[in-house]
Amino acid sequence: MGNIRIELIFQDFVCKAELFDTNIANRFADNLPYNVPLTCWGNELYGPIHKNLGTENPVQYIPKGGIAYTNQGGYVCIFFHRLTKCSNGESLIIRAFED
Questions:
Q1: Are 81 and 43 in contact (CB under 8 A)?
Q2: What is the pTM of this model?
Q3: CA-CA 20 to 30 A from 32: which of 20, 49, 51, 84?
Q4: pLDDT truncated to tens, each residue of the chain (99 aa)?
């Protein structure tokens, strides 16, 4: 499918991002749009998308600006701080970017 550019719309701002060309990212895109109630935990925001997208190439660390998905609860996590160690075997699906 190729990399897909999306916008994450928050109450007061829009963050542009690009989905990676992976099976999970493609399944994520197939179910757009999402309305996700986000919770702050440390240096990340997370919330449920209520979809099981499976697992694929879980990573041990997520970089700053990375957005990951975990099938343990069907959550997406947005990472704002330095490189973060994962606890649930998240799959990196999106990277935020600036034009």
A1: yes
A2: 0.77
A3: 84
A4: 567 888 888 888 788 888 888 888 899 999 999 899 988 887 788 899 999 998 888 877 778 778 888 888 888 888 876 655 555 555 555 555 444
Classify 23 as helix, strand or coil. Answer: helix
Q: Which amino acid is at 71?
A: N
Exposure of 90 by Cβ count < 10 A (0-12 exposed, 13-18 middle, 19+ buried)? Answer: buried
- Percent helix, strand and coil across the chain, each to the nearest 5: 10, 40, 50
C-alpha angle 89-96-6 in degrees, rounded to nearest 5? 100
Q: Encoding tokens for residue 80?
A: 């704002």
